[in-house]
Structure formats: structure tokens, C-alpha cells
Amino acid sequence: QVQLVESGGGLVQPGGSLRLSCAASGFTFNNYPLSWYRQAPGKERELVATISSSGGNTHYADSVKGRFSISRDNAKNTVYLQMNSLKPEDTAVYYCNVASFSFNSWGQGTQVTVSS
Known about the structure:
Layout: E1 3-7, E2 10-12, E3 18-25, E4 34-39, E5 46-51, E6 58-60, E7 68-73, E8 78-83, E9 92-99, E10 104-106, E11 110-114
Parallel strand pairs: 2-11
Antiparallel strand pairs: 1-3, 3-8, 4-5, 4-9, 5-6, 7-8, 9-10, 9-11
């Protein structure tokens, strides 16, 4: 079955950086776009970034443009989210997602806390 496992979250000071990873299995990784979402306490889950199956196209939420970068390694079945210039408002649980006509799968999430 489809499995997504996120890692790399933690506590970081404002202005710092983190790189999240999402290891995927159970589907043909290089056939699907992948996305990162986040959910802050008391808020709805929101789309952060998406990358096409080849990695040639990316999309970002306005709130993270210029600070976050999504990438993928199809040989390792892994998608990454490089987060720079982190702000307290980036604090959330970050989730990896893959969706198709036949499935919509989520990882367990990884907590990112930006605080001094």
C-alpha cells in the first residue's frame, strides 16, 4: 500500500532553516506529482508546495515563495522541502501528500516549531 514517511522537523529559531524529507513507497513514485501541506493549531490544512512528476514544474503558496523550495529525487523515492528564513507563522505540522484518481495518501506529519 501507499506509504509516506516524513522526517526532519524540529525546533528552530526565527530566520533559521530546516529540510524536511518524505520517503515514499507502494506506488510508482516518478509517475506522480507530490505536495507538502501544513496545518497550524486551530487552522485548516493548507497547500505549501507541489512538484510535478519529473520535477520540472513547481508551485508555491504565496506565503512561502522565495523562502521554501520543493525538490524530489526519483531514484530515492523521496521528496524534500527546504525551508529558509523561517518565521513563527511557519509553525505547523507538515504533511507529505500524493493524490491520484485512485488514491489520496498522507504521511503522519512532522512538527516544525519556529520560536526564539
